[in-house]
Write a structure and sequence with these properties.
This protein is of the alpha+beta class. Helices cover about 20% and strands about 40% of the residues.
Length: about 260
Amino acid sequence: MPCLLRFSRSPLAVIALVGITTVAAQPLDVPYVPTPQEVVDRMLQLGKIRAGEFHIDLGSGDGRIAVTSASKYGARSLGVDLNPVRIEEARANAKKANVSDRALFELKNLFETDIGKADIVTMYLLPSVNIDLRPKVLRDMWPGTRIVSHAFDMGDWKPDHRESVIGRTVYLWVIPARVQGRWSVEGSHQFTVNIQQQYQEISGTAEFGGKSVPLRDAALSGAEIGFAIDIDGMPIRFQGIVTGDRIDGRRDEWRAARAK
């Protein structure tokens, strides 16, 4: 079965292999290009990593991102790479930094890595690999968790933030809650909301009193949602937190349930 593999933190280090026997026979002398430490530091700052959070670095190379997140921020880090030389180097670097208990490294295919428990995922891959990973991160990661990529974007999924660091581009995405569909709102005002969603961008309409009005200033960031509608000529703002098929108003003044 074809599988796309990531060997080291280099844009040239992703190659296609066919079958397990081919993987075993494939040489690992691919070029290795480490991420500059200034970029490492900024990636973790943008990801707002905090002590105790679980961080996964896909294509971890010599382990510098995972080691930095463990040593500087107190995170629990897992680096994944398919180059055994890089894995041993990363483990040696973790030991040197006295974080071997918090920065672990596995020889593993990044597409087979369980990212569902991660608070933040970092990566330096290729554009095509980022695109192939996009469905996995949207499906497996929780709303509000973060992805930071060095050099490459995720196609039509616009980043929440993008900036240049010593001439390198760094991207940040916040995993959005799934809110597309019809919602029944209850509280001081009762109405139905129809939401359309494209990643973190949302729009829609509200139906009440026999009429339909567009949502104004609709926004979604992680699990946080907000929109305004005009009721009796007055703009009313609704802010809430999405939890699965429920939205709870910020001050318990309203709530919504996804219509069956």
